[in-house]
Each structure stands twice: as C-alpha cells, then as structure tokens.
Amino acid sequence: MSFVFWILAAITVAGGLAAVTLKNTVHCALALTAAFAGLALMFLELDAQFAGFAQILVYIGAVAILLVFAILLTRGAEEKTEKSVFSRTWFTGLVIAAAVFAVLAWAVLHSGAALPDHAGLPGPAPQVTVAQIGNALMGRYVLPLEIVALLLTAAMIGAVLVAMHEKGEPK
Amino acid sequence: MANTLDQIFVLLKHWIMGLFPSALQPIVGVLLSVVAIVAVFPGLFALTTVLERKGLGRMQNRIGPNRVGPFGIFQPIADGIKSLTKEDIIPVSADAVVHFIAPLVLVVAVFMGFAVLPMGRNMQLVDMDAGLLFFFAIGASTEVSIFMAGWSSRNKYSLLGAMRAVAQMISYEVPLLMSSVAIVMITGSLSLVKIVEAQNQYTWGLPHWYIFTPWGFAGFVMFCIAATAETNRSPFDLPEGESELVAGYFTEYSGFKFALFFLGEYLGMFSISGLGSTLFLGGWSAPLQVLQFVPSWIWFFSKVMLSIVVLIWIRGTLPRLRQDQLMNLAWKFVLPMTLLNLFVAALWRFMGEGWLRWIVCSAILIAVYVIAGRIGMRRGDFGPRTYRYAE
Question: In A, which residues are within 8 Å of B143 by CB distance?
C-alpha cells in the first residue's frame, strides 16, 4: 500500500463523509464529486487507464452535473431549518450498512478465485489496453453491449415521455 | 541543422536534466515541461487579447486599443496590472469557499489538457495510450467549475448563465467526441502522438491530413462548431451574453479571479484549437513535403494561431444564437451528421484505395447535408404563441 494510495483513500473517504454530513445539499454534491475524483485517481494508480478516464468523463462530467441540476430544479437547495444530519433510525441503518460491508468484503477477498489463472496469490497486474477492451466488447460481449444500448434508449424515451405534455392538456 | 532546430527544446531539456543527479532527473524533466507550458501559453494568451481587441475593433469599424504602446501591443501589461490591483469583492451572501475554488478548478483543469498535445516532434508532456480520452475527460470537468461559479454567486443572472452554459456544454460534448471517434477509427489508436504520425505521410508532395478526406472535412466542420460551443465563444456565447446577462456566470467576480476566468476561457480556446489541429490538420507536420525543413513546433503553433484568428473572425461576424436554436442545432443537426460521418468513415476504410471511394463518400455527405438543411429551413406555420412550463 503506497503513500499515494493513502492520500487518495483519504480524499475519497473524506469526500464521501462530507457528502452525507454537510448541511447544504449543493455542498454535498460537490463533495461527492471530489470522492469521484479520488476514485478515478485510484483507477489510474492501478494502471487502469481506460477505467480512470471513463470515470472522470462519465461521473464527474455527467453524473455530477446531473446531480446538481436535479438539486437546483427541485427544491433541494433551499436552506432548511436547524435539523440534525443523523436520523432517528440510526441503529437500523448501522446494522444494514455493516451487513452490506460484510458481503462486499467477502466478495472482494474471494475475487481472486474468479480470475482464469488464479494461483492463490496476487501476481503481476495484467496490462489491459483500450484495444483489448474494444475487442472484448465487440467480440465476446457484444450481446450485453446491445442490450445495454437498448436499455439506455428506453430510459431516454421514458424521460422524454415523462416530461412531455400530452396533447390537449391545458398548458 | 534543420533537425537540431526542430528538436532544440527537447535537446535543451535533456541538457538541463543532465545537470542533475540521476535520481532527480525524471522529476526535473517533468517540471521543465510544465514550466514551459505554463510560461508559453499565458504568453500567447496576452498576445491573443490584443489581437482580439484590435481585430474585433477593425471588423466593427473602430480602432481598438491604441494608447498603451505602438498599436496598443502593451495593452495586456496594463490589463494585468489592473486585474492584479483591483479590489476583490465577494458578495455578502455568496458562498465564500465555493466562490473561491471555482476559478482555480477551471484553470487547473484547462492546464491539464495541454499535457497530451504533441506540440512538435517528440514534444508532448506525456505520451498516454488513451491521450484523447484524457483530454475529453478533463474538458468535461470544466463544466463543474462553471456551475460552481454561477451558483455560489447567489445571483439570479449568474445562476441562469451558469445553467445555460452547462446545458450548452453538455449538449455539444457529444458531437465533439463523436467527430473525433471517426479519426480514432481510421487511425486505430487513441494516442494523439500516433494520430499525428499517421498524418505525417506525403503523396505527390501533399500531406495525408485528415481534413483532405471527405469524412475528415465534414468531421472538421462539426468539430469546429462543437469546439466553438464548448468554449462559449460567439456565436454560442449566450451564457456570457454581454448585452443580456451582464457577464453571466462570472458577474460577481472582480479583480484577479475574473482574470483567472478570462485566462481559463482563452486557454480552453488554445487547447481545443490544438486538439483540432492535431486531429484534423496534421499537428506538427508540414503542409508540403518540400517545407519539412521548417521546425515542427512552428507548424503546430501556426496552426493554433490560425484557428484563433478564425475564431476571432467568426466572433466579429456572426450574430449570437438563441438558446433553443443552439440546442436544436446540436441535437437535431450536428449529432445525426456525426453519426453519418462515422458510417462514411467506415465505408471509406472498407472500400479500399482508389478514386471511387472519394466520389461515393463525398456524395453521401453532401446529399445528406443538403437534404437535412432543406428540411431544417422549412418554415413551419407560426400560430399563436404557446408556453410550456417546467412542472
């Protein structure tokens, strides 16, 4: 675990904590953007260039903008009265969070077994280039790619339908 | 001799690196490149401000700044001193932290984009395999800073300008990326260095620049439209419409922070002109085979400055587009044309060498452009004005 990893981990965790504890919703969205940036830098530190740049492009460039637009266009940005950031059902939340963490930790620690050339110990990281990702997407995984495209188109059409006025409705 | 002049900056950098112990050499090398970029591009920015003000002035039949030096060339120095010494006003109800960070994020993001541009033979800061993707990712991060600037000012006009700017930038990002994907498809690599090297070949003395192919020319036109919109330049500068929104999202910024926004916007212009030159105009390669003795960095910067001059020219000539006209143009015209361009580029690649592919590809592009333009220009019946409210 190198020095850079600890700095990036600190940024990501601090961003995540700030995103749930700050009072102003737009500040929370910006702190979440900082957490996304920390994650992207971690991908880059692991030499996953495509994943890192795609994280910046998609999450910071699109999802963060979507979040702030959603906050602004609804009433989330208004100043609320003094209200604690901790809810009354905090104990249930803690139990559920611990359960999710346990499942994820188990999955991560046993993920080595899913790799094709598993030898029980972490070996040298495979160099994945964009060309290999492209080949895999268009070769072996072309059916999931097409289904995801269909899903995204359906989501866009759904968004347009929800926002559109029906004919004859008084405006 | 020509080769030495071409590589003179690289040789200088290696010589300075050699003066340090070998453990420090990589860091010193990177630092030198960074210092060079941070020194050169703001210098070009100063030159461009004078060029723009004089150029716009002449196009609008007035003189432009002419007091500060002969033909006003020392005007940027006066502007710099003014912006450094002006009082920094922050509105009382503004969000101080976000208000402070916004220009910093913009300038940092824009400077990072210069890291992958090949400014000459062997003259890029880092040669990344996914260099083009890095550039676009960093460009997408500038939208966050514009939103931060507009929102933290607690000013209705700033917020309105910021929302318009972000909507415009997101809309035009898709055509920007899609018109570059055709280049990536034909070159086979996302690395900007390889894209330039693929264009550095000559047939009968003429270069293989992508702009000289039908799909490359169409892609270049669409890239220019999208790039002008991405940097909020006229005719897409409604977010900072000087006659409507005061200054849009940087209304409440004064003094040095305004200068930082200004710097960020112009550096964004340089950066995207550099990318356009790299992708379509051949980067640092010379226009004719006989002109290869001129150093490669001179060609790159000439192409960038030519793009800047064209941008200034367009600013002085065309009227501003309204927000809905802007968005319609992006989603209903430019985006379908970029998709068609991808198809035509693939057709070009698979038709093989010869004159037939030129004719077929040009015919498809011109026919669709004319038909789409005719459909778009048909005037619908204008009935009584209707209003649609967001609910």
Answer: 61, 65
Inter-chain residue contact B129 with A49, CB threshold 8 Å: yes
Provide ipTM, 2 decimals: 0.80
Phi first, then psi, for residue B92 (nearest 5°) are: -65, -40
Q: Which residues from B are below 8 Å from A171, CB to CB? A: 386-389
Q: Name the residue of chain B whose CA is nearest to A28's CA.
A: B98
Residue A74, domain CATH: 1.20.120.1200
- The verdict on A2 and A73 lying in the same domain is yes
Using one digit for the tens of pLDDT, what is the confidence trace for B277-289? 999 998 888 888 8
Q: Which residues of chain B have pLDDT under 50?
A: none
The DSSP secondary structure of B286-337, one letter per residue, reads -SSGGGTTS-HHHHHHHHHHHHHHHHHHHHHHSPPPPHHHHHHIIIIIIHHH
Which pTM was predicted?
A: 0.87
Virtual torsion, Cα B186, B189, B192, B194, nearest 10 deg: -90
Answer yes or no: is A89 within a domain: no
Contact A61 B133 (CB under 8 A): no
Structural domains of chain A, count: 2
Q: State whether B173 and A61 contact (CB < 8 Å).
A: yes
pLDDT tens, B29-80? Answer: 889 999 999 999 999 999 999 999 999 999 999 988 888 888 888 888 888 8
Range of the domain at A24: 1-79
